[in-house]
Specification:
By secondary structure, this protein is an alpha/beta fold. Helices cover 25% and strands 10% of the residues. The protein is built from 11 helices and 15 strands. It is elongated. The N and C termini lie far apart (79 Å).
């Protein structure tokens, strides 16, 4: 019988720029039992423990730290005996210090209040440390997906073959927390975020056995060697390229746009787990999508109030065409130039909505695929918005030709030529005119254009 793949990865640390598509649609997972089990709550009873003590339950903490890579995996009877021991020894102190370092806590080697609180937060089941090496990196401001070059990868950097750029995915039947159509939509959204910033494309197929990526919901021991632990513990786990498995714990209370801390946002967890499928490791930035822990009710991946490398260029684009105020007349951008600002704030969201309205796009306030495509089309350099007022006329069906001026929009204040000109205007060409066309051709083109 073939051995099962181990839960081991090499992780990237920060990726992608924008492109996030979330629905504010709430879907509860299923009927809610009255007393949900909290898998990591045992740690609360160990708060205050330190080296030299023997406390009932410390062996569970050792098993926790072993599971996430901070203590060596027990490969023999002697090591297993150590992890069944309730003594706070040097090995445990060292493991706790490593954990505190990765999560940017005070490095005390003790189970202080902050360490216990962090350890009790539900999280991904993929280890933070593999073979003694942490894949976690610190990435300030990385609340969004970024280009893959910014991420940490699993140890030995397992990758999909270079020729494998389209990855197929499918769903295991049975035990689905959501109906299949909802689950398909959730996963399509999650994959689209990685597709926007990597060279991969993703396609769903019906035959899960032949899919590159296999997705399912499972409970307890489900045959992959890494059993789930019930509510409030491990939310899900994934296996590195080219194994391609993502498993979610069906015992958790899942929702889209969670209404309370009792629910976990399925799309946030899916985006995280799919990052592992591409070979990405955990990040130590608490705002990053690849940070291992996720609180109930928390969502990640929304664009607003996030920092993404390159967003300042989008702001410059929108400023150029009038959707953002000119930087020299804006108090904020006087102190911090627009070229230095990569935050997705309220002002940017409002500008995008106005752009989408002007171009008859869905008004989402996000850089969705249709908006990005429209923005990349070459265009006239005259602003669409002047002094905060749109000067774009309404869309007229069939208006592919010129129509009477009364149907057009004018610049603010309706600037016009002087009546003294008697509707007679002259034009000419600059002596510095540079073009591949000969002069006679240019004359003909402009004469035709003015004649219209």
């Amino acid at each position: 019988m073939a051995s099962k793949p181990t839960l081991f990865f090499t992780w990237p640390s920060t990726l992608l720029p924008l492109f996030l598509f979330l629905f504010p649609l709430l879907i509860e997972s299923r009927p809610i039992p009255q007393a949900p089990h909290q898998a990591f709550q045992f740690i609360k009873k160990l708060e205050g423990s330190q080296k030299g003590q023997t406390i009932i339950g410390l062996h569970h903490l050792k098993q926790y730290l072993e599971k996430f890579g901070y203590l060596p995996h027990h490969s023999n009877t002697e090591t297993k005996r150590i992890y069944d021991d309730d003594s706070f020894d040097d090995l445990l102190e060292s493991a706790i210090k490593s954990y505190q370092h990765n999560f940017h806590l005070n490095i005390t080697g003790k189970i202080d209040a902050a360490t216990a609180e962090q350890m009790m937060i539900p999280r991904c089941g993929v280890p933070d440390i593999v073979n003694g090496k942490s894949g976690k990196g610190r990435h300030l401001g990385s609340t969004q997906l970024h280009q893959v070059s910014h991420y940490a990868f699993f140890q030995n950097e397992p990758k999909w073959p270079p020729s494998k750029t389209q990855l197929t995915y499918g769903f295991y039947p049975g035990n689905l927390v959501f109906d299949i159509q909802t689950l398909r939509s959730i996963c399509a959204n999650a994959f689209s975020k990685w597709q926007a910033v990597t060279h991969f494309t993703f396609q769903e197929i019906e035959d899960v056995n032949n899919a590159d990526l296999k997705i399912g919901f499972f409970s307890g021991d489900h045959g992959d060697g890494v059993p789930f632990d019930g509510r409030g513990g491990t939310l899900g786990h994934s296996f590195e390229p080219t194994v391609g498995w993502t498993h979610f714990d069906s015992d958790e209370r899942w929702a889209m746009n969670p209404p309370s801390p009792e629910f976990f946002d399925i799309e946030s967890v899916a985006v995280h787990e799919f990052g592992h499928l591409l070979g990405l490791a955990h990040s130590s930035d608490p705002n990053a999508i690849m940070f291992p822990s996720l609180r109930g009710g928390q969502r990640k991946g929304s664009q607003k109030c996030e920092t993404i490398k390159g967003l300042h260029q989008l702001k410059q684009y929108l400023e150029k065409f009038g959707y953002l105020p000119h930087q020299h007349s804006n108090t904020y951008t006087q102190t911090k130039g627009i070229e230095d600002d990569d935050s997705f704030d309220d002002l940017l969201e409002s500008a995008i909505k106005l752009y989408q309205q002007n171009f008859n796009l869905n008004i989402t306030g996000k850089i969705d695929a249709a908006t990005a495509e429209q923005m990349m089309i070459p265009r006239c350099g005259v602003p669409d918005v002047v002094n905060g007022k749109s000067v774009m006329g309404p869309y007229l069906l069939g208006s592919t030709h010129l129509h009477p001026i009364s149907n057009d929009s004018f610049f603010p204040d309706a600037s016009t030529w002087s009546p003294d000109l008697n509707n007679y205007l002259t034009y000419g060409f600059s002596s510095r005119l540079k073009t591949s066309l000969d002069y006679e051709k240019i004359e003909s083109i402009f004469a035709s254009a003015f004649a219209r």
